[in-house]
Design a protein that fits this description.
The chain is of the alpha+beta class. It is built from 33 helices and 19 strands. A hairpin with a 2-residue loop joins strand 5 (about 240) and strand 6. Helix 23 runs antiparallel to helix 26 (about 830-850), helix 28 (about 895-920) runs antiparallel to helix 29 and helix 32 (about 1030-1045) runs antiparallel to helix 33. The longest helix is centred in the first third of the chain and has 37 residues, at about 110-145. It starts with about 45 loop residues before the first strand and ends in a 9-residue tail after the last helix.
Length: about 1050
């Protein structure tokens, strides 16, 4: 028999969870009849099959009279034969309005009967599922309660054993592995590029800016001498590793694009003065020096101020200077670097001021494996020694900063481990919350230590989930760490539901006379149903995300799905075993925290001196949410305000959903307050490219897929078509101009001693000459920069593939095997443009050089591939999850209209959450996609239980909406509050992922509570469907008892007790919370 709880649990146990509606979510069919009579109605069926009831005769239409269908519901609940009455009136439409019933019953239209049977069938299935769950979890609880100590030992050992799988944990930090689909064209292209051309060289940058961010000019001799001193520090740094010593100029460290004997690839303002201290000190006009249009770096490449200086200010355009620069570029057969050529080709004026300097050193990247987490141990050792020296470097002239790939990776890893304490804080916070909720001012009835048991139980479940997934080789990433807090929130919710149900069994199973096992079985039977509802919705949401091609999203969902099931298992065994021991403690009248000491406290003795213990006082939360909230929102003005605010939020959500962009930036993973964050800010402030922030360097590659290899001599038309394709593509920037190695080769030939032997098209006359002269070009100063861009076969060949077939060569020589050309995209401002640019370049190059297999590749292409995939995967996962959850709600609620309203609330929450990304400055990516999918499983609980409570009330729609909040509002609120507490520590986290989870989970909770506690009750007050038949029967029983008490059939004290019992039975579930 359901009863009110003591005030000791007013805040938590009075509504400790959104799943506190655990009993009757699935009791639509069988709750009409209860073994002990607590839910049984008193309706009878007369000889004609008409339903009769003893109710208060003054029925004004607000309370629909039970009819024939109520008897049908009772028969269904008890598996009895259905009564047949062709004259029974269908009350489906009568309950939709508030008109008085005239008591006449007319045969309903056939269509109405058909609809009635369909709804009855859904509720019958729900009742069958409900009975099955009661039997299943009741059997488990009985086995656990009979041997609680053994269960605790076994489950604890099992959790530790499964957690041992963490010994095989596979930590994945490669962003391109986690956040991009692994089977796409960009990965195939990357494999080809890295196999043929090797890994891209690493670049270490040193920035020099005005002291203290003064934004003063750095084009001074002291500033230049400081930068030269830093360069000497880098060049002279000697590092020992693996038994060998090396410096920057050692063959193993610096990158030499022109070959082993060529200079190291270094670019800085010092190139203007040849890295000579004397040249800097003797220069009396520094501005004139950097405005020299013929300046080149060590590799002979054109040098421009924009490539080495930041915030360059130029005067009016100078046509003569522009022409001179253009002539220099033509004579060298090269476009130079991006910023230099951009300035040259645009005819900009002379430089008049600069605010920052940049020195770049390129290092070899002979890493030991694939993936960005694999490193070159030698260059990494050199970087590890260099970075602390630069960070500690002090100068009177400028402030110096260093940006190193090793430092970026190291900082990102440190950020991951620095926020682990946030997870521990979350566990501590919910432990304290459970401690407060379960504590009572009574030494025996208090159960504070059960909060600690809950943390241990959920901790074992999370440990087991991580261990099992690691054992099967599932990748572990930073995203997966957040799961520990999510499971803690769900597990604490389960705990509060179980403890609330345990309190409700107190009167039915007194400690002095009842069996401990029976008490625990009754508790679990009542609580596990609600826990299953929430576990199912969350499990479905997690499973739908497994279809994603993004490893970070897919792996997280697998971890989460396994974790939810294990939380259910441990809370049904480990926690229940501890609860059984707690019942023993209470029966022995022992203290809560000192379970070995017997207490002599009486039933009303309080731990607080001068106060008596009273467990019937309503809590503050019940007063605010159960009384004040419905009074406000169900007032006509309140309804208008709720609907207006809901519509406003939804409109903003739609607007934000349309405007939000897909984006992903590795810089997000560097937390605020770290050194690198300042370096990134400096780079963005001073070194915005002349091409724009969205400009992207892209390599264009030609291949040699035939066997024997293609002879490039016969495919020169395709090489020229590649250049034409790039120049005509709207996504390829014209500044710098596109100059391929082939174009530079023809330009060199036209000005060489071979000019007289060229064909009319300016080409070599034969294949042997084509390749022989190409080797000469690459050794010349004009072609040296292309040395690493043209690859030859390792061996001299005798045969080659031509357009007409395989041909024998006139002589043995090495042929071109593959080539590379650098170009830049236009300014790509958003992800749709980025994806379009990638696809456009692929299509145009494939059409221009089909035989050579030309294709574009840039590292960001890996993430561009993920943009379309993640959008498709998220939409599919959300749609699939929503469909399955809707079917679950239809089964559990047994009402189509109300299920549609619940589905509408969930859909609105997801749209508004998507729009929140835009308004919060976030973007759509793998991290936010996870939250969008989780939102369905989490947010549905808030609306589903409110809807069920509404269907379980009688009266007008207005009254039923008010009662739904009065009986279940606190439970729904506490469900959201526990989840918010679980993620609250993430507000202090430094990492991007933790911060994103906090923002989105906070919004999920806020939107879920608003729609579940405000919007849905208002909508139900307008268009709610009739209540369950069992609800009408319970109300009839209440009215009968009240009527009997008025006629003196029950004595005063007994009448008061039974009236309270009847009031408890009028609640929407067997367990009632104050």
């Amino acid at each position: 028999m359901a009863e009110s709880l003591p005030t000791g649990v007013a805040l938590g146990c009075s509504g400790s969870s959104r799943r506190v509606a655990s009993d009757a979510m699935m009791m639509s069919a069988n709750q009409a009849v209860s073994p002990n009579g607590s839910g049984a109605g008193t309706s009878t069926v007369n000889g004609k099959g008409n339903a009769t009831a003893n109710v208060n005769g003054n029925n004004n239409g607000d309370l629909p009279l039970p009819k024939k269908d109520d008897a049908i519901s009772n028969a269904a609940a008890t598996d009895a034969p259905l009564p047949v009455d062709k004259t029974a009136k269908d009350d489906d439409h009568d309950d939709h309005d508030d008109h008085d019933h005239d008591g006449e019953e007319e045969p309903p239209p056939p269509r109405q009967n058909k609809r009635r049977r369909r709804r009855f069938g859904i509720r019958a299935v729900g009742g069958a599922v409900d009975r099955g769950l009661i039997a299943f979890f009741g059997a488990i609880a009985r086995a656990v309660a009979q041997r609680p100590v053994a269960v605790l030992a076994v489950m604890g050992a099992l959790g530790l054993l499964m957690g041992a799988g963490l010994a095989r944990i596979n930590v994945v930090t490669d962003y391109e592995v986690l956040y991009t689909p692994q089977k796409n064209m960009a990965f195939k292209d990357r494999d080809y590029v890295e196999q043929r051309f090797g890994y891209e060289p690493l670049d270490v940058k040193v920035y020099a800016v005005g002291k203290g961010g003064s934004n003063s000019s750095v084009l001074t001799q002291p500033a230049l001498l400081t930068l030269l001193d830093v360069y000497h520090l880098m060049a002279n740094l000697t590092v020992s590793f693996n038994g060998s010593s090396f410096s920057l100029v050692s063959p193993r460290i610096c990158y030499r694009p022109g070959g082993p004997r060529s200079p190291c690839s270094v670019e800085s303002p010092l190139d203007y003065w040849g890295y000579s201290e004397a040249a800097i000190r003797s220069d009396t006009d520094l501005l004139a020096t950097i405005n020299n249009p013929r300046a080149v770096n060590r590799l002979g490449q054109p040098l421009s101020p924009e490539s080495v200086f930041g915030l360059v200010t130029r005067g009016p355009p100078l046509a003569a200077a522009a022409a001179a620069i253009a002539g220099n570029s033509s004579s060298n057969g090269s476009a130079g670097n991006a910023s230099g050529a951009a300035g040259a080709g645009s005819g900009m004026g002379a430089v008049v001021d600069v605010k920052a300097m940049r020195l770049t050193v390129w290092l070899q990247n002979n890493r030991e494996g694939r993936g960005s987490s694999s490193v070159d141990p030698y260059t990494q050792a050199w970087q590890k020694a260099l970075v602390p020296l630069i960070k500690a470097y002090k100068s009177e002239a400028v402030d110096v900063y260093v940006l190193s790939p090793w430092d970026e990776n190291d900082t990102s890893d440190n950020a991951i481990y620095s926020d682990v304490s946030m997870l521990m804080a979350g566990y501590l916070l919910l432990f304290l919350y459970g401690l407060v909720i379960l504590s009572k001012p009574h030494p025996v009835e208090s159960r504070a230590y059960m909060g600690l048991v809950n943390v241990v139980s959920v901790g074992l479940a999370a440990l087991s989930a991580y261990g099992l997934c690691s054992l099967v080789g599932l990748g572990f990433s930073l995203v997966s760490q957040v799961l520990a807090l999510l499971l803690l929130g769900l597990g604490t919710d389960d705990m509060l539901v179980t403890m609330a149900a345990h309190e409700e069994t107190a009167r039915e199973y007194p400690l002095a006379t009842s069996s401990m096992v029976d008490r625990v079985v009754a508790t679990v039977s009542r609580a596990r149903r609600g826990v299953i509802v929430a576990a199912l919705t969350n499990f479905v949401a997690f499973c739908t995300g497994i279809i994603s091609e993004l490893p970070a999203l897919r792996d997280f969902m697998i971890y989460a799905a396994v974790g939810v099931i294990l939380v259910l298992v441990f809370q049904s065994t480990f926690f229940v075993a501890a609860l059984a021991l707690d019942v023993r403690r209470q029966r022995a009248h022992r203290y809560d925290t000192f379970c070995c000491v017997v207490s002599n406290a009486g039933p009303t003795d309080s731990c607080c001196p001068g106060h008596k213990y009273d467990g019937n006082r309503p809590g503050v939360a019940q007063t605010v949410i159960g009384q004040w909230l419905p009074m406000i929102i169900l007032h006509p003005a309140g309804k208008l305000a709720v609907l207006a605010l809901t519509l406003t939020v939804f409109v903003f959500g739609v607007i934000g959903s349309v405007r939000v962009q897909q984006n992903f930036d590795i810089e997000w993973f560097i937390p605020n307050g770290f050194y690198l964050k300042d370096v990134y800010a400096l780079r963005s402030a001073y070194f915005t490219s002349a091409l724009g922030k969205g400009a992207l360097p892209v390599g264009v590659y030609t291949t040699n897929p035939a066997s024997p290899p293609l002879d490039y001599f016969y495919y020169q038309d395709e090489m020229q078509a590649v250049t034409a394709s790039l120049k005509s593509n709207p996504y390829v920037s014209s500044a710098p101009p596109v100059v391929t190695w082939y174009d530079a080769y023809l330009t060199w030939l036209a000005n060489s001693t071979h000019a007289a032997n060229l064909t009319a098209q300016g080409r070599p006359p034969s294949s042997p000459l084509f390749h022989a002269w190409l080797h000469q070009f690459l050794l010349a100063s004009q072609g040296r920069r292309f040395t690493t861009d043209v690859l030859f076969t390792r061996d001299t060949l005798t045969h080659a593939t031509t357009p007409t077939g395989v041909a024998q060569l006139e002589q043995r020589y090495k042929m071109v095997e593959a080539s590379r050309t650098l170009c830049f995209t236009t300014n790509l401002n958003d992800s749709p443009q980025e994806v379009s640019a990638m696809h456009s370049m692929r299509a145009s190059l494939a059409a221009a050089a089909p035989a050579l297999g030309a294709f574009p590749y840039s590292f960001p292409f890996l993430f561009f591939e993920g943009y379309a995939v993640i959008q498709r995967d998220t939409i599919l996962a959300v749609a699939l999850c929503a469909a399955v959850v809707f079917l679950l709600m239809l089964l559990l609620l047994g009402d189509l209209v109300v299920s549609v309203l619940v589905g509408l609330m969930v859909a609105m929450i997801d749209i508004e959450l998507m729009g929140f990304l835009y308004w919060a400055g976030l973007s759509f990516n793998a991290v936010t996609s996870i939250n969008l999918i989780l939102a369905i499983g989490i947010a549905v609980d808030y609306s589903a239980f409110t809807a069920y409570s509404f269907l379980s009330q009688v009266g007008t729609r207005q009254e039923r909406a008010r009662k739904a909040l009065a009986h279940l509002g606190v439970a729904v609120f506490n469900g959201g509050f526990t989840m918010f507490l679980a993620v609250l520590p993430l507000a202090l986290a430094k990492s991007f992922i933790f911060q994103t989870f906090f923002k989105m989970f906070s919004m999920i909770v806020l939107l879920g509570l608003w729609h579940g506690l405000c919007t849905l009750p208002v909508l139900l007050s307008f268009m709610g469907t009739p209540p369950y038949e069992s609800a009408l029967e319970r109300h009839e029983q209440v009215q009968r008892r009240i009527e009997d008490s008025k006629h003196g059939e029950v004595s005063g004290d007994q009448n008061k007790m039974e009236w309270h019992e009847s009031k408890a039975q009028d609640a929407p579930m067997v367990q009632t919370m104050v």
